[in-house]
Structures are given as structure tokens and as C-alpha cells.
């Protein structure tokens, strides 16, 4: 017998237009709904489930930690924080970490570091450069840093600490520098996620790094979506050979357990002192264990190389299956962060793909987003294309 089709609860705030399916369990890159229908999970909870679902080494580690200690206050030392901080700072070439629970919290911490860094230098009203199409979260400050007017509308007046520039345009950044002497930092996503899956050019990232060095600005990278191995290196900026001053991460960091982190280097790592920042849940033993196990398993199983290899394979297969359709503008991305841009809004594809047994999302109205678990195999990639291509072709033929 089928369970009834899930409908919006009158007791849950109406903040999402939900697809009418309810997922019950998962294994590897597949999930099953309450009716037993199977789906290929090419979304991974939006780039969160790094190791897939029900991972045979992650699950017992978390069970062990739950039985030992889930939470304790940051009034005390948390050994797991030291372990995870060591793993992260080594891989990101940074000095120190602050642990929190979500992406927006990590960016809030970045923004607080930039503001106080400026004030400590004697700048009364520090300004932070942000980008067109940027997404940094939905708190008051991170919403102000976000470009999308739909995200911001209805919540003014928002903080006016930000100046916005176009992507990949060094001259525009130089012009902003001249117009705003109080700039203290530049904040950007090396691959913009919600904004439509746009990688920034490597040479542009190097130009931004050089300008930050010349002007004494902090380079603050938001790798909440593109970091943690998704592109085939630990962090997307490493493809450009740069090192940031501040680096925020969350999503895939603990393979599904909520955790966020902001890493900092040099002077930026010393800005926040006792009393300046804090969190009740951040850095709790369960989240730290999940992060440590995620990184350990990623390395044991070679998941960075896998993301690079299967990502290239999947991108080529998507180009083969969809690239010649006149309505497909581009197939782009790096590693297992892939966007397929159409020439029209395609939000309806989320539900149509789900009917065909495939979980995806659509971002910036017209970009199909594929961000599967990093354990994806080439055979799984073939499965994604086999399910997606007919759905997209049907959708486009009905549309035109
Ligand atoms: C998801 C995301 C955020 C916000 O993370 P939350 O955990 O939803 O607060 C911020 N920046 C980027 C680039 C993201 O992809």
C-alpha cells in the first residue's frame, strides 16, 4: 500500500515549495521514499552528504560518539575540535579555526573578523567587497552580502557594509578600491553556487589576491558549497594556486551532521578574542567526530581523485547527451559540482526528474545543479545521465 502523498503541514512555516515526496532512508548514492521508490541522489542534500548515505564506517563512529558524549559547553576543552582543526588547517594551509553549525554562521564570523580587523586598524566604518550573483546566507548580515534581490526583499534597511562588483572584472575592483578608501576585505565564492554555478577565472582570483596583498585587505573565500573536496582538490581556490586569509566552510564538512567552520591565517586568525564571538552548539563532540571521520574516510578512499575523475567523466557524458540541444547553453563546473544552463526557466525539472527517480536542483532559475556524493562511480554517473537526459529533452520539446 502506498503512503499518502505528503502535503504541506499547517504547523511548519511555509518557507519551501517542496517536491511532494518524503525520503525515508538511503544507502550510498541512492535514497528511498516512504513508498519504497528508489532515487539516484545527484543533489546530496545540496552538496552535504559527502560520503553518501548510511556509510559503513561513518555510521558506527557516530553511534560510538553518541553513546559517549553528544554535547558539552565551550567552557571546556573539546579534544575533537583540536583534531578537526589540525586536519583542516593542514589541508587549507591556514592557522586557526572557529567552529559553528551552519554556513551562514561561518560567514557571519568572517564578516565579524573583517569588521573588527578594520576597526583595529583605525577604520571607523569598514567596507567589504562582495559580488554580483553572490550567495552567502540568510542571516541579516549574510543576506546583505547576497546579491539576489528576491532573498533580500522585505527586510530593509539592511547593513550597508558592502560594495558590490561584477565577477572576473579586475578593472571594476580597482575602481571600487579608488571609490571606497575604507575597504578592508573582499569576500567571494570561487565557484558561485546558488548564483548559477559560475566558476571565477583562476587568473582573476590571482589578481584579487595580489590586490588584497597590495592594499592590506583580507581575502575571504566562501567555500561552503565548492569546498571539502568537491572539485577534486580540498578547496576550489587551490586550483588557482592562491591562499586566502579567511575561509568559510560548512555543507559537506561532516557528511550530513550540521557543522560550519571559519579558518583564518596570520593577523586575521588573531582578531577574535574572548568575548568577541561564541556559540553554544558549535564545535560539539558529535559534529567534530563526524568531521574527523569524514576527512579520514575521504583520504582512505581517495575521494578527491574520484571527484576529479568521475566529475570530468560526468561532465563529458552530459555534454554528449545534452550539449547539442539548441536550448542547452552550457555544461560547466569542476569535479562533482556541475551546472547545465538552459536558455529558459526550468524549475519544473526538479519534480519531473524526481518522478524519473533522480534528485537534482535548479538554481538561478535556469541552471540544473548536480552535486552528488563524492563516492559516485562512473556507472552511477551513467545512471544520472540516463535518467536526466530524457527528462530534459521531453521538457524542452513540450516547451517549444
Ligand atoms: C549554502 C551556502 C551558504 C549558507 O549555508 P547555510 O548552512 O544554509 O546557512 C552560504 N554560502 C554558500 C556559498 C552556500 O552554498
Layout of strands and helices, then pairs:
Blueprint: E1 23-27, E2 30-33, E3 38-41, H1 44-47, H2 58-68, H3 79-92, E4 96-100, H4 103-120, E5 127-131, H5 140-145, H6 149-152, E6 162-165, H7 170-179, E7 183-188, E8 191-192, E9 198-199, H8 202-215, E10 218-222, E11 246-249, E12 260-264, H9 285-300, H10 303-322, E13 328-334, E14 337-342, H11 349-355, E15 358-359, E16 361-363, E17 367-370, H12 378-399
Parallel strand pairs: 3-15, 5-6, 5-7, 7-10, 10-11
Antiparallel strand pairs: 1-2, 2-3, 4-12, 8-9, 11-12, 13-14, 14-17, 16-17
Helix pairs in contact: 2-9, 3-9, 10-12
The structure holds pyridoxal-5'-phosphate (PLP).
Pyridoxal-5'-phosphate (PLP) binds at residues 102-104, 107, 135-137, 189, 193-194, 222, 224-225, 250-251.
Give a verbal description of the structure.
The chain is α/β, with parallel strands linked by helices and 400 residues long. It folds into two domains: 23-53 and 302-399, Alpha-Beta Complex (Aspartate Aminotransferase, domain 1); 69-300, Type I PLP-dependent aspartate aminotransferase-like (Major domain) (Aspartate Aminotransferase, domain 2). The chain has twelve helices and 17 strands. The strands form four sheets. A seven-stranded mixed sheet has the order 4-12-11-10-7-5-6, sandwiched between helices. Strands 1-2-3-15 form a four-stranded mixed sheet. It has a four-stranded antiparallel sheet with strand order 13-14-17-16, with helices on one face. The chain is globular, with a radius of gyration of 21 Å.
Amino acid at each position: 500500500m502506498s503512503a499518502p502523498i505528503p502535503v504541506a503541514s499547517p504547523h511548519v512555516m511555509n518557507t519551501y515549495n517542496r517536491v511532494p515526496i518524503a525520503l525515508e532512508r538511503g544507502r550510498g548514492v541512492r535514497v528511498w521514499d516512504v513508498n519504497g521508490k528508489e532515487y539516484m541522489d545527484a543533489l546530496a542534500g545540496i552538496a552535504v552528504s559527502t560520503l553518501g548515505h548510511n556509510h559503513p564506517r561513518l555510521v558506527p563512529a557516530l553511534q560510538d560518539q553518541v553513546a559517549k558524549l553528544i554535547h558539552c559547553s565551550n567552557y571546556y576543552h573539546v579534544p575533537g575540535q583540536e583534531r578537526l582543526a589540525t586536519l583542516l588547517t593542514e589541508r587549507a594551509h591556514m592557522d586557526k579555526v572557529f567552529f559553528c553549525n551552519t554556513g551562514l554562521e561561518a560567514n557571519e564570523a568572517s564578516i565579524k573578523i573583517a569588521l573588527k580587523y578594520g576597526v583595529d586598524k583605525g577604520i571607523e566604518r569598514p567596507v567589504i567587497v562582495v559580488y554580483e550573483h553572490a550567495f552567502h546566507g540568510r542571516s541579516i548580515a549574510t543576506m546583505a552580502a547576497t546579491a539576489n534581490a528576491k532573498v533580500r526583499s522585505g527586510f530593509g534597511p539592511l547593513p550597508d557594509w558592502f560594495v558590490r562588483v561584477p565577477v572576473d572584472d579586475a578593472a571594476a575592483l580597482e575602481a571600487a578600491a579608488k571609490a571606497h578608501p575604507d575597504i578592508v576585505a573582499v569576500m567571494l565564492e570561487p565557484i558561485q553556487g546558488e548564483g548559477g554555478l559560475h566558476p571565477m577565472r583562476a587568473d582573476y582570483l590571482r589578481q584579487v589576491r595580489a590586490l588584497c596583498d597590495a592594499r592590506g585587505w583580507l581575502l575571504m573565500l566562501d567555500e561552503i558549497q565548492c569546498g571539502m573536496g568537491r572539485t577534486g582538490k580540498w578547496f576550489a581556490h587551490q586550483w588557482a594556486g592562491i591562499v586566502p586569509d579567511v575561509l568559510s566552510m560548512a555543507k559537506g564538512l561532516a557528511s550530513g551532521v550540521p557543522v560550519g567552520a571559519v579558518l583564518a591565517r596570520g593577523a586575521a586568525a588573531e582578531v577574535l578574542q574572548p568575548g568577541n564571538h561564541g556559540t553554544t552548539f558549535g564545535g560539539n563532540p558529535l559534529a567534530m567526530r563526524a568531521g574527523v571521520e569524514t576527512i579520514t574516510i575521504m583520504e582512505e578512499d581517495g575521494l578527491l581523485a574520484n571527484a576529479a575523475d568521475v566529475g570530468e567523466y560526468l561532465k563529458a557524458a552530459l555534454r554528449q547527451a545534452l550539449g547539442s540541444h539548441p536550448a542547452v547553453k552550457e555544461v560547466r563546473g569542476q569535479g562533482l559540482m556541475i551546472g547545465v544552463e538552459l536558455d529558459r526557466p526550468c524549475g519544473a525539472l526538479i519534480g519531473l526528474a524526481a518522478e524519473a527517480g533522480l534528485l537534482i536542483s535548479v538554481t538561478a532559475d535556469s541552471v540544473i545543479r548536480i552535486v552528488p556524493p563524492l563516492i559516485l562511480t562512473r556507472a552511477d554517473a551513467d545512471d544520472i545521465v540516463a535518467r536526466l537526459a530524457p527528462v530534459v529533452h521531453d521538457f524542452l520539446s513540450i516547451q517549444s
